[in-house]
């Protein structure tokens, strides 16, 4: 979500300062609106990307990811006046727009609506689209923020509506800035508040769960599945180790499958596996179909609580891992690394996944990863060594035989 609100400053003479900062698989957007006296009246900084699923002319569905927010404009952004509330309006790409409206309810302001519009007539972004024209998705947001506070939300916020998923994170906003000075008093979103809350200790007599291995050990291998109605539609077997770097401090988290929850969803072109635990709000693996005959891991989203009480959130919807034909599974016994960003990587152990075309709840024939191909070098090398020994033996035999005949000729 994004967060903003009304101001009694006149909308005339506003100076719009818009900075676009680079970030992993997305752009950090920073917006500073000033009035005619050059005093800040609205400040916002955030990151976002989008996923849109649409119907094609042959009645199938395709999913596109919109994460390139370069060449952004902010026409229509305003701090508001006595009649109209403030608004953040963002335009990017070919026909995309994103608008947040605010209304004032002293002593708070309300994040009223968030709207996302896209032009499905754009054949480059939406090839073979069945429908044409501009589609607008309106989302009602009921969030109150104190007028004098700056709103902060580091956690990943997800809005899903009508085949559109919005991912928004690392939000910092004050829509009604007092006396031109951005507040240092923060109002945290619920997701960040929960992340810093210590859960109460409840004494029970149930057996203790299997202990989570220390980061120096390989993680336990877990079996995960997602159901669609009465049948299993996604299978995954893997040990998971999360590697995080925040503020130059590195940490490693091994996931214990015995204390991990599993949810997800399956669609014709996409499938999602979501894991969660006491310290992991969610860890999403999103798979997609490409070229109508292969699948791959396209997206990873994570939000978790670190030991120091902070929240770590990352989203990347432009990955390309675990590629295999539809109707088969992907398998890799060796350790693999999924690089989600410069600050977050996932190491997998004894991996096997099948996100589509699962039959009778069982894995189909597996395509091995390239890392496992090294195993074939062993018999080849052994065979080459044996062949070399055999050649040497035969050579020695023929040399001896020749000398033997040469001896006979001398007598």
Helix coverage percent: under 10%
Fraction of residues in β-strands: over 45%
Oligomer: single chain
Helical segment tally? 2
**Largest sheet, described in full?**
8 strands, mixed
Q: How far apart are the termini?
A: 104 Å
- The structural class is mainly beta
Q: Please tell me what the overall shape is.
A: globular
| Overall average pLDDT | 79
What value does the Rg take, in angstroms?
Answer: 29 Å
Low-confidence stretches: 1-26, 196-210, 372-385, 406-411
Q: Can you count the beta strands?
A: 25
The arrangement of helices and strands along the chain is: EEEEEEEEEEEEHEEEEEEEEEEEEEH
Summarize the structure in short.
Belongs to the LAMP family. The protein is mostly beta strands.
Overall description:
The protein has 2 helices and 25 strands. The protein has 411 residues and is mainly beta. Strand 1 and strand 2 form a beta hairpin. It is globular, with a radius of gyration of 29 Å.
Topology (elements, then pairings):
Layout: E1 15-23, E2 26-34, E3 40-55, E4 61-66, E5 87-92, E6 96-105, E7 108-119, E8 134-146, E9 150-153, E10 157-161, E11 164-174, E12 186-188, H1 190-195, E13 221-228, E14 231-246, E15 249-254, E16 261-266, E17 270-276, E18 280-290, E19 294-305, E20 311-316, E21 321-325, E22 329-332, E23 336-341, E24 344-354, E25 366-368, H2 377-410
Parallel strand pairs: 9-12, 22-25
Antiparallel strand pairs: 1-2, 2-3, 3-4, 3-11, 5-6, 6-7, 7-8, 9-11, 10-11, 13-14, 14-15, 14-24, 16-17, 17-18, 18-19, 19-20, 19-21, 22-24, 23-24
Membrane topology: Single-pass type I membrane protein
Signal peptide: 1-28
Transmembrane segments: 376-399
């Amino acid at each position: 979500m994004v967060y903003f609100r009304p101001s009694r400053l006149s909308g005339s003479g506003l100076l719009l300062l818009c900075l676009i900062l680079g970030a992993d698989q997305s752009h950090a957007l920073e917006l500073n609106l000033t009035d005619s006296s050059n005093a800040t009246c609205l400040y916002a900084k955030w990151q976002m990307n989008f996923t849109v699923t649409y119907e094609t002319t042959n009645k199938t569905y395709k999913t596109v990811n919109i994460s390139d927010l370069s060449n952004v404009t902010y026409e229509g952004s305003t701090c508001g006046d006595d009649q109209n509330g403030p608004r953040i309006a963002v335009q990017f790409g070919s026909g995309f727009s994103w608008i947040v409206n605010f209304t004032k309810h002293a002593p708070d302001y309300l994040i009223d609506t968030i709207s996302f519009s896209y032009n499905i007539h754009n054949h480059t972004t939406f090839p073979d689209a069945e429908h044409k024209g501009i589609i607008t998705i309106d989302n009602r947001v009921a969030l109150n923020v104190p007028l004098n506070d700056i709103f902060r939300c580091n956690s990943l916020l997800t809005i899903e509506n009508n085949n559109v998923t919005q991912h928004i994170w690392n939000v910092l906003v004050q829509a009604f800035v007092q006396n031109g000075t951005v507040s240092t008093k923060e109002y945290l979103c619920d997701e960040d508040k929960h992340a810093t809350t210590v859960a109460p200790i409840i004494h029970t007599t149930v057996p203790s769960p299997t202990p989570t291995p220390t980061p120096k050990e390989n993680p336990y291998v877990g079996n995960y599945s997602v159901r669609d109605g009465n049948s299993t539609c996604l299978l995954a077997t893997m040990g998971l180790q999360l590697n995080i770097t925040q503020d130059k401090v590195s940490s490693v988290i091994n996931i214990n499958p015995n204390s991990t929850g599993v949810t997800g969803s399956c669609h014709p072109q996409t499938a999602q596996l979501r894991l969660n635990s006491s310290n992991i709000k969610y860890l999403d693996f999103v798979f997609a179909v490409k070229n109508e005959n292969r699948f791959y891991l396209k997206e990873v989203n994570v939000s978790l609580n670190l030991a120091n009480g902070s929240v770590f959130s990352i989203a990347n919807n432009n990955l390309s891992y675990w590629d295999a034909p539809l109707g088969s599974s992907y398998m890799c016994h060796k350790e693999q690394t999924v690089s989600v960003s410069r600050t977050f990587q996932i190491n997998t152990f004894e991996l096997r996944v099948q996100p589509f075309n699962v039959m009778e709840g069982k894995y189909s024939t597996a395509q091995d990863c390239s890392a496992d191909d090294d195993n074939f070098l062993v018999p080849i090398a052994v065979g080459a060594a044996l062949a070399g020994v055999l050649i040497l033996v035969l050579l020695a035999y023929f040399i001896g035989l020749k000398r033997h005949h040469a001896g006979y000729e001398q007598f």
